[in-house]
Design a protein that fits this description.
With 453 residues, the protein is mostly helical. The protein contains 20 helices and no strands. 81% of the residues lie in helices and 0% in strands. The longest helix has 30 residues.
Amino acid sequence: MSNQRRTALALTGLSLGASLNPLNSSMIAVALVLLRSDFGLSVAAVTWVVTAFYLASAAGQPVMGRLADRFGPRRMFMLGMGLVVFTCAVAPLAPNFALLCVARAVMAVGTATAYPSAVIMVGAIAHRARVEPTKPLGRLQMANTSAAAVGPVVGGILVSLVGWEALFLVNVPLAVAALLLVRNAAPADPVREPSRLSALLRESDIPGILSFVGALLLVMMAALDVAPGYRWLMLGAGTLMAVLFAWRELRFSHPFLDLRLLGRNRPLLLMYLGFAVFSSVYYFVFFGLPQLLEEAGGYDPGLVGLLMLPLATMSVLATPLAVRGIVRYGVRPILLTGVGLLTLAAALMWLLTGALSIPLVIALTALMGIPYGMVGIASNQGMFASVRPEERGVAAGIYQTCRYVGAITATVMIGVFADDGVDVASWSRMVLAMVVLCVVTFAVSLLWRQRTA
């Protein structure tokens, strides 16, 4: 096999594996109404199938990046894909909703290995191919960004033709293909000194991971009022756990989330914050709009998936154009332009409170897709521009965590605004929330400057 062909196959496998996490993060959107019907759930309750995935992804990305550094990215990538294959093959057999949420969480851990491992492997692949790493990194970023955009379309088709079970089964051949491509074409892991299990456990920061997940879980439960009468107690406990998490991470030698990296790197911190808030707008549309179309509009899930196609198409088309703009003008102008368009598109979503006609939905989703592609790739490039090469593995893991913190925020707010179902009234409140979040994203992006040293 020629070196050029081996490089192409390796990047294809890495891109395919890296796309599974964002693909599954949005593909479930069109199945929420069906899951509510099959399992007899409220809007707030069904969001746990989304939240379980995001909590596991948010915690798993940095951890998997660290394990890839320790055991080798190729080895961890293949292990993650194997976990995805097994979990997605048995998940459709889950007898109840709780086990389905567990399966989603395990699948999230498996898919979470791909992106950090791929970022680490890109350096070796670029060195072997004698090219700058910018191009293969851009390919990974495009796969990561585009996969979330096409998720509702793919999900709508699968749910309409087969049912929600297909959202798991489709991952089996994709993960197998990614595993085989990387196994046969990616560079071998460098030899690493063996380490004891006790040392690995000490350095894995398990208390940090548990406190991070616990803080998010308690705050979410308080926001959704899952235990009436205990909301403020849970909110206080979650806040206290978050403070303890930050205290530990700043003092631990191998932190789960390197808060010291953020503390000494203001551009990176701003990019993370902006991306997290942007992601909440992103997932407001991805989870709120399909439910509005299915419940208030009475559209079939398959048709809803097709109505989301303009968003995915324009997002994919806008991504390479945004890359060219970044090369010519820099990250910041493209980022600010994208957020400005995002604010306009979010405000125009209010028109859906008056009519849910197909032409209007197509026009608005197409318009929304343009800034999604622009902001997504600009944020990704801005993150890489804000860190040194040796920090990119850790930075990529935290970056993905920010995506899911934003997604969790969106799902919680949807549950708060529309506990009894997404209708015109609750959608108007969501639009207002999206506009406010867009303004915050613009303000944060305005403060960002590319790191000079």
